[in-house]
Structures are given as C-alpha cells and as structure tokens.
C-alpha cells in the first residue's frame, strides 16, 4: 500500500488549473490526509504553462519532491514540463478527443488514460466541468473514495446553487466510470483516508487570519504578486470585526495610510512584495522616528527589479534589515511555515505596539502560495494575547507632562519605551515628526538631545533583546557535528531532508531561525559544530553574511536562486555533497 | 466638544519661524479660528502636514499632529480619519507638496471623499528650498532653476479637483482673515473632502504673486452671486484663468463621505485583549 500521492494538473493559465487543484487538495484534506501544494505559474492572465501540484500523505508533509504519480495534462506541454518527475508507474489523464491532444506523446512506460473530458462534461451539463471529470477519473486511479470529492465540490460550488453542485458531482462520476469501464488496469495506488480533521490554507491566508486575531483593524495595500492574497483575505472579513481594507493608489500611499491609522491608535498593517517595499522605503524612517507601531509585510518574490514575479526568492532580507536612509531601529520577523505565518503575525503586532517600531514580517512566495494542512488547534485563538504596550489615558497622562502641562511622547525612559497617547486623549495633544525632536516631539538640532533620542530609540531594541524569546526552532540530532541553519520557508524541505539524510546515516542538527532582527546569538552553536551550512533562496547568502558577521567565522552555504523552492530530496543531496559524501546521480 | 474653546487654544507656545509677513500666518490663523468655530478642541483634532514651509504648521499649532514625508500628507490623513472618525482631521500642505510630488494622492483623495479638510498654502513658489518654480508658478516666472520661466502652463488645482469628482472646492486669500476663516469653516463642515486652495504669498521669493497683486485682482464669488451648487457655473469659474476667485466655488450637497458609503464607524483603537470571540470561525472556514 502506498501512502504518498503526488498529483498535479497542468495546462494554460485560464484553464481553471488553480481552482481545480484546490478542490482536489480539499478533497484529500477532508479525507483526513495531509496535503502540501505548490504552484508553477507564469505572470500572465491567460495562456502560458500553469500547474498546481499536490503532495499528500497520511503523515505530515512539509515539502515537494521530484515525483509525480498522477498527472492531469490539459496540454502536451504539461507532460513535457514534468518529464523529470514522471516515473514508470505514472498515470497521465488527458482528453484524447481534443484536437491538440489527439497525438499526445505519452512516454513509453507510463500509462496514458484518454478520457473524453469535454464530452463527458457536456453530458453532465456543460463543458466548463471538464476538469471535474478529470478529478473523478483521478479518484478512480488513486482508489480514493469519490465522496470526499463531493464534499469539496459542495464547499466550492455551494454558494452557486444545488444544480451546479449536482452537475459537478455527476461530471466526476462520469469521469470515474469511464476509467472503470474503459481501462482494465490494476492501478497501484490506494490512497488511504483517516478520521483526522485538517484545515487547508496558505501563508498569505494565515497572515491575514493572524492579523484579524491580533486586532488589526486597518489594512491598506496595493495589489502585487504574491502578497495580494493577504488583502483579498482581509477584504470582506475584517469589516466583521470593525475594520476596513483600503486599496491605495500606490505603495507610498498604502504605507502612509497605514501609518495614519496607527497614529490614530488602530493596529494597522500593509503588505507588499519587493518592488512595493522599494517604494515604501521613504516612510520607514518616519515610522521609526515618530515611534509609530506598524506591521509591514514583505512577501518576497524573485528580484531584482521586476525579476520573476511569480517565482520564489529570499532576496529582500538586506532590504528589510537595512533599507532606508539613516539608521532605523526596526524588527524583522520571518515566519518559517504556513502556521507560523499566523503566529508570527500576531507577534509582529505585539512587538510593534510594545516597542513602537516598524516591524517587518518577512514572508516568501513559496510559503505564501503554498496550501498546507494543519490541525485546527495549531491556530488556537485562545492563546492569542494582545499586548498594547505603554498607553496612557486621561488619568495617568499627568505623569508624562512637563512643567507647562505639555505631554512628552518621546520622554527618554530607562527602557526606551515611550508613553503613548491615542488622539482624543485629553491633555495628550502632541506633534509627531520624522525630524529629530525633543521629548515633546518638537524639532531640534540640539546635539545632546539628538544623541539622547537616538539612544532612547535604540534602547527599545536592547530592551526587547532582553525581554523576548528570540530562540530558533530546533530539529534533528542535537549532538550532530553538522549544523544546518535556515530561515523562512526552507524549514519544511529541510525537515524532510533530515529524514532522507537519516536514511543514509547522515546526522544533522537543524536550526530554523524566525527572527532576523533582533536575532538569537548563534555564536556558540556555530563554534561547537564541525560544519555549519546556511541554506537560503538567494545568491549572495544574505543571512549567511549576517551570521558570519555575528560569529566572526566562515560558514558553508547552499544557495538556490533559480526561482524554485528547495525540494527535500534535492536539499539532502546538496548537504551530502557539502559534507563530501557521494551523491547518487 | 466644548463651546468654550477659543482659537488661541490651538496656538502652540512655539513661535512660528516663517519669514515675517509670510502668508502662512494668516492661513494658519484662519484654520485655528475655523476649528474653534466648529466646536473642536485641540485634543480631538488631528493636523497632518507634509514637507516645506506649510509642513511646519503642526509645530506652531497645538493639537494632535504629524509632520510626515513630502507629498504624502493626504494618505496619512485618510488613515487617521478612517481609524478614528471622532477626530477632526485637517490636512495642510503647500503647492509643491500637494500638486507636484503629491498630485497622485491629491486626485485619489478627492475621489475617495473621506470626511476631512485639505488646506493648501499656495504661494506659487518653492520657499524652503529658496526659490524654485512650483507647479503653480506662472509660465514666465523666472527662478533659480527656471531662468527663463518654467515655460509650461501652471497646474490648475481646482480643475484637477473638479475633474476627479470633488464634492467641495474653495479658494481663499490668507490675508482676508474673516473670509478665509469662514471658507475653511465651510470645508470642515462639509460632509466629505473639503478642499481649499489658499493664496498665501511668499514675501521672500515671489515678487509676482504678491499681496498687492491678489488684493487688486481677487474677485469674491459672493459678490458675483455665484451659486456653488451649480456645477456648470463652477466649471466656468474654475477654467477662467483670467481671474483669481475667492469663495466656495463648488459644493455637492448630496456628498456621501467614504466612511458612510463603506459602513465604517467606531474608533478602531478599541480592541479586545485577545482574539475576537468568534475568531475560531476564521479557522473553520479552511476545513
């Protein structure tokens, strides 16, 4: 019996690839199976190769692998693009009646199932359901109970009325029956179901959900791949909690609107990707200098310039860490998997308000567009704590006023954290500015006050370094001589790579670091290991550079920057190669 | 809101650093007077400014205020107002701030129609960088960066506003104190985006658009019997480049401000100590 199933649908953008893939992912999830999805998509609305891939198992899955068991190919290119991942037992479902697929080239040893997707869909009520026919056929090949697909179809089309749901179910049945009747194969797949309840969501959605849970009420943004889903998630949901989403005219406006809302006392956020971060950079200093709590989410994609907008990269670390003129105290938090996107978003809002700083939430495309299953308990809303920091009201404002009864929003406290009065608080009227200012917030060029205020702002970071837990997430063998360090979405493939490595008796300690700044001091961990390898999706090793600087030593690097995230088996091979071990060709 | 608020309550104890005789003194005084007249207090007022001479206003006034980055004051004001509709939000800017670097935001703020007022101190020159052409400088106005004049027609901010669907367009002259304050007050009272372009002469760098020039050429729309609810009449005045008009030029009485249109109410700063009660529903959506 085979537990893993690697399935994909591919065709042209506009063929409904994404929604069909999502339906099948949901069907598997509802059958109590773990799911991990990935997408190949091009930056265009119609045309161009697009694929949605699913890896599914009864065990937790954290990564994609180089293997495809069932492929629904709507175009010849879908087969050609995936030849490397197909194997001799792979099953390819295609529409043999479609003119362009009549002479389809199925590699010799594989099984090609010519299913008349379009005409069966027509029988069920409309050719638009051709992909659903393919899903029915796939259920038959995988020996997967089709009732689970029904349930996913209910969810997908329920709002469109019963007739559409029933037609789709019928379409799936026709696909299933066609394979049963026309192909007398004994497929080797037997996809098991379990009683587990899972939720299926991607990183962008988890960030949006985390924002609502954390009390975010104001979101302003400008659409950009791959961050737009955060905005789409919040739209229509945040209103229920008394908030609003504003689509700004550009990123400059987006971050300034968010800044305005934050100064009015709302928990506020904007999300964008690299090019948007560039435009927002002007305002970073103002946020820090005016001590405004703001969460700025950067869902990284491949750069520079417009780069490869639909591909993975972790190239913006330096940008978020150092971007902006002058020196800007800030936090950079980088979630390491889809569930952590939720938790780290909540944390980001708390950091922002406790320390009155910009907080960069640094996510990446691989995580943002990847759907993954989790137990609902991993998003435990009861555990969400909201810490708003030092907010003063009418009763205690006097303690923070000077001899002329003027509120001092930038009073240089011992921990660097300022008193904060929301507009509307009696006696708290004050000015905020990006100019250097005194305790009142008024402009100054006094050399002593300048130094005092710079020190005060940086003291907030020192306070946070002492008060918060910046530990990395640890996996693998804690006594191993080899230490692998990664950040962001590399955690998943790396965790699975540990299993591959273990099979080959390679013992590895793995630290996944969610905090870029402030960050854990890994000097001792680095010093005590024989080999240290930093894994990241960029060319220059931005995080490796930071760690080398911290620990005053050289580290090994594994860098991937072709636009595709690490795959677990590939990463295991890369690590073995770094350790001087032979890797099977 | 207290009726006892006086306009001097909006004065900061910091003396303005504008050049003696600057039009911005009068512009600011009118803003403070209008705020007091409309029953606002410094503690429930939020003033947003960008960069330039106009940007200093937050320091010279007493209220909640932010001095932001160049050209971005309107987005900041939008965020403030939507997050807390109880606040009286007034955005102050200059012609460079609003019609050059910030012109994109201006157009979109106009069409968004958030309930706030926008007062632009238009001196037709860049003052703080010491005398370069601004978007409203005359075509032949010689400056350090345009020795033969910009040789481009000046921006007509009122026409931009009208074409973007403005619901309130007015113009005033900073030194005509009573009239200016009255016009700003109408902008505050307007349900939506209240835009006032103020002739606020620069006595140091602009020797063309002077107090004398405006005194001689200004035409008060009230004297002309202009009806600000008449769109066609407003359009005619706005496109008439031969005169400098003062008064409310256009007002849409049916204006519905953004918040009302989108059902946004309540102060967003008030949130529970933990996740909202029904937050688990958000998770269940992903089953």
TrEMBL record, chain B:
InterPro entries linked to this entry: 2-oxoacid:Fd_oxidoreductase, OFOB, PFO_beta_C, THDP-binding, TPP_enzyme_TPP-bd
Renumbered residue ranges of the record's region Disordered: 130-153
Segments forming domain Pyruvate ferredoxin oxidoreductase beta subunit C-terminal: 202-262
Keyword line: Iron, Iron-sulfur, Magnesium, Metal-binding, Oxidoreductase, Thiamine pyrophosphate
Molecular functions per Gene Ontology: iron-sulfur cluster binding; metal ion binding; oxidoreductase activity, acting on the aldehyde or oxo group of donors, iron-sulfur protein as acceptor; thiamine pyrophosphate binding
Cofactor list: thiamine diphosphate; Mg(2+); [4Fe-4S] cluster
Gene Ontology BP term (one): organic acid metabolic process
Residue intervals of the Thiamine pyrophosphate enzyme TPP-binding domain: 52-198
SUPFAM superfamilies: Thiamin diphosphate-binding fold (THDP-binding)
Domain of life: Archaea
Protein name stated in the entry: 2-oxoglutarate ferredoxin oxidoreductase subunit beta
Source species of the chain: Haladaptatus paucihalophilus DX253
């Amino acid at each position: 019996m085979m537990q893993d199933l690697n399935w994909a649908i591919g065709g042209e953008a506009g063929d409904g690839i994404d929604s069909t893939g999502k339906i099948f992912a949901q069907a598997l999830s509802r059958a109590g199976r773990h799911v991990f999805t990935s997408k190949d998509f091009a930056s265009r609305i119609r045309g161009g190769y697009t694929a949605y891939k699913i890896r599914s198992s009864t065990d937790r899955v954290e990564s994609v692998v180089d293997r495809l068991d069932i492929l629904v190919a709507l175009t010849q290119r879908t087969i050609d693009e995936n030849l490397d991942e197909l194997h001799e037992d792979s099953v390819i479902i295609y529409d043999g009646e479609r003119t362009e697929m009549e002479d389809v080239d199925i590699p010799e040893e594989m099984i090609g199932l010519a299913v008349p997707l379009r005409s069966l869909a027509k029988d069920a009520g409309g050719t638009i359901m051709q992909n659903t026919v393919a899903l029915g056929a796939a259920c038959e090949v995988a020996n997967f109970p089709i009732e689970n697909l029904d349930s996913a179809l209910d969810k997908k089309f329920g709002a469109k009325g019963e007739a559409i749901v029933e037609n789709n179910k019928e379409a799936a049945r026709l696909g299933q029956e066609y394979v049963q009747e026309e192909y007398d194969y004994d497929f080797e797949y037997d996809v098991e179901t379990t009683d587990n309840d899972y939720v299926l969501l991607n990183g962008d959605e988890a960030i949006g959900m985390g924002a609502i849970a954390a009390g975010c009420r104001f979101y302003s943004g400008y659409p950009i791949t791959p961050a737009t889903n955060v905005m789409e998630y919040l739209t229509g949901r945040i209103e229920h909690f008394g908030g609003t989403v504003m689509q700004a005219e550009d990123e400059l406006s987006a971050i300034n609107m968010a800044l305005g809302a934050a100064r009015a006392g709302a928990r506020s956020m904007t999300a964008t990707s690299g090019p948007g971060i560039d435009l927002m950079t002007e305002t970073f200093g103002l946020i820090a200098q005016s001590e405004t709590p703001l969460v700025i989410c950067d869902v990284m994609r491949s750069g520079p310039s417009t780069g490869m907008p639909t591909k993975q990269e972790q190239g913006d670390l330096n940008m978020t860490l150092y971007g902006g003129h002058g020196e800007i105290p800030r936090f950079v938090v980088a979630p390491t998997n889809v569930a952590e996107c939720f938790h780290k978003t909540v944390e980001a809002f708390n950091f922002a308000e406790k320390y009155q700083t910009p907080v960069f939430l640094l996510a990446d495309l691989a995580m943002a567009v990847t759907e993954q299953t989790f137990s609902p308990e991993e998003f435990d809303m009861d555990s969400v704590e909201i810490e708003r920091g030092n907010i003063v009201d009418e009763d205690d404002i006097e303690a923070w006023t000077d001899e002329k009864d003027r509120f001092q929003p930038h009073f240089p406290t011992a921990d660097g954290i300022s008193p904060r009065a929301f507009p509307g608080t009696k006696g708290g009227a004050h000015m905020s500015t990006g100019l250097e200012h005194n305790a009142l917030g008024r402009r100054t060029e006094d050399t002593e006050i300048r130094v005092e205020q710079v020190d005060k702002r940086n003291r907030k970071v020192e306070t946070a370094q002492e008060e918060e837990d910046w530990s990395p997430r640890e996996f693998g063998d804690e006594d191993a001589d080899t230490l692998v360090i990664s950040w962001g979405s590399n955690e998943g493939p790396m965790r699975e790579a540990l299993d591959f490595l273990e099979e080959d008796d390679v013992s590895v300690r793995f630290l996944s670091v969610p905090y870029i700044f402030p960050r854990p001091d890994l000097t001792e961990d680095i010093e005590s290991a024989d080999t240290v390898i930093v894994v990241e999706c960029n060319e220059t090793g931005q995080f490796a550079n930071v760690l080398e600087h911290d620990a005053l030593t050289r580290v090994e690097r594994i860098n991937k920057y072709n636009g595709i995230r690490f795959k677990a088996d590939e990463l295991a091979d890369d690590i073995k190669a770094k350790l001087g071990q032979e890797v099977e060709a | 809101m207290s009726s006892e608020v006086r306009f001097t309550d909006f004065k900061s104890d910091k003396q303005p650093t504008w050049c003696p005789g600057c039009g911005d003194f009068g512009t600011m005084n009118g803003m403070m007077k209008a705020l007091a007249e409309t029953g606002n207090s410094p503690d429930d007022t939020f003033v947003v400014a960008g960069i330039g001479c106009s940007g200093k206003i937050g320091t010279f006034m007493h209220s909640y205020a932010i001095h932001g980055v160049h050209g971005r004051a309107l987005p900041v004001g939008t965020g403030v107002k939507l997050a807390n509709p109880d606040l009286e939000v007034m955005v102050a800017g200059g012609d460079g701030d609003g019609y050059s670097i910030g012109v994109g935001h201006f157009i979109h703020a106009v069409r968004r129609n958030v309930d706030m007022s926008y007062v632009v101190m238009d001196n037709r020159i860049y003052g703080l960088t010491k005398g370069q052409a601004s978007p409203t400088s005359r075509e032949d106005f010689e400056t350090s960066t345009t020795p033969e004049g910009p040789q481009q027609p000046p921006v007509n901010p009122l026409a931009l506003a009208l074409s973007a669907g403005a619901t309130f367009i007015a113009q005033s002259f900073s030194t005509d104190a009573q009239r200016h304050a009255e016009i700003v007050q109408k902008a505050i009272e307007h349900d939506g985006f209240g835009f006032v372009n103020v002739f606020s002469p620069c006595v140091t760098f602009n020797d063309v658009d002077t107090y004398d020039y405006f005194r001689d050429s200004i035409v008060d729309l009230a004297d002309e019997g202009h009806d600000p609810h008449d769109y066609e009449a407003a359009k005619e005045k706005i496109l008439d480049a031969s005169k400098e008009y003062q008064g409310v030029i256009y007002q849409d009485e049916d204006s519905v401000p953004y918040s009302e249109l989108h059902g946004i109410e309540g102060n967003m700063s008030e949130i529970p100590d933990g996740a909202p009660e029904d937050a688990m529903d958000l998770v269940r959506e992903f089953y």
